[in-house]
Amino acid sequence: MSGPAPVDAAPDVVCLGESMVTFLPSRPGRLADVPSFTRAIGGAESNVACSLAAAGHRVRWVGRVGSDGFGDHLVDTIGGHGVDVTAVGRDPHRPTGVYFRTDEDRATDAHEVVYYRAGSAASAMSPATVPYDSVAGARILHLTGITAALSADCLALMRELTAPRPGRPLVSFDVNHRPGLWRDGSAPSVLLDLARRADVVFVGADEAERLWGVADPATIRTVLAEPAVLVVKRGAEGAVAFERRDPAPPAFEARGPGRSPGSTGTGPATDTVTHTPAPRVTVVSPVGAGDAFAAGFLSGTLLGLRMTARLRHGHLVAAAVLTVPGDLAAPPRRGHADRLAALDDAAWGTLHLGPGWTGDDQEVRTP
After folding, report:
1. SS3 category, 351
2. Chain centroid offset of residue 106 CA
3. Considering the entire predicted model, what is its pTM?
4. Alpha-carbon dihedral sign for residues 184, 187, 193, 195
5. Tens of pLDDT along 212-264?
6. Which of 38, 175, 198, 314 could form an S-S bond across to 293 if both were Cys, CB 3.0 to 4.6 Å?
């Protein structure tokens, strides 16, 4: 694994958001019954950063942590994954956030998570504390809706980063709706506005139904018509990508000095729609799979892969995380992932991935 990118090297991707120290239970069950916990790190954006760095891309994580031991642990751990952490701010007056969670699937009632993040260093991120220079120059800027929920200052920062401006990086936005963070009922309007400003958007069909009352991918596209690429995740059923085809090249390929993000030229826009089923996976833990999917898809985007291959790389990186206990997993080797992503539809449909599958040629086919 390579070390952090040099400070003067322009990153392929900047991931901006809060990372926290997470305490993982030593056994399943209610938090009240778990006797001990193991320290790890958690954060949607830093998860994506670590996965992309492991895939060989130059990645910078931009965040804010306290001047405390937990902040040291986050910076050291994320940096140890090969991520550039030189733009991380340290706050002498606010603590690093922490949280505790159970083993159960986040979508079930049995899942418990307790956050200690109110007043955290990350909640003080704002246009004043996070210089735009820390994200400028990247090919992709990856954000999530979690940051927008942390504070009014964080929302102001998100609006600044997603505002049209010449030379803006391609903005990737994962809606990542966490209902517990949105107590004022503003999530539907705020997250819709931010998603419409982005170039690439990831949203779960279940999230879209909670937020905007629509679950069918084609209907979600009518709600989110602005992004050049919309990826609707459907869990075990796979994912559907809507890619706008305009007379002008996509913003990611054509943007240069003076070109505004999301610029589409003139004339009618049409979508190319690509559906890719997910492989069967023996799930060890579901936490972190959405972040891994985004990392795999963005890696494919950076490599200029066709849409089917981007989606399949997303599924494969997600499967790597699904088959380990924590939020992070080493992705499959590039050659291994490329071979699997290139399978014909029938062979792809027979894949069954279980723990240890990321070793070369360890995939299991089902009849």
Report:
1. strand
2. 16
3. 0.88
4. positive
5. 999 999 999 999 999 999 999 998 899 999 999 864 444 444 333 333 333 33
6. 314
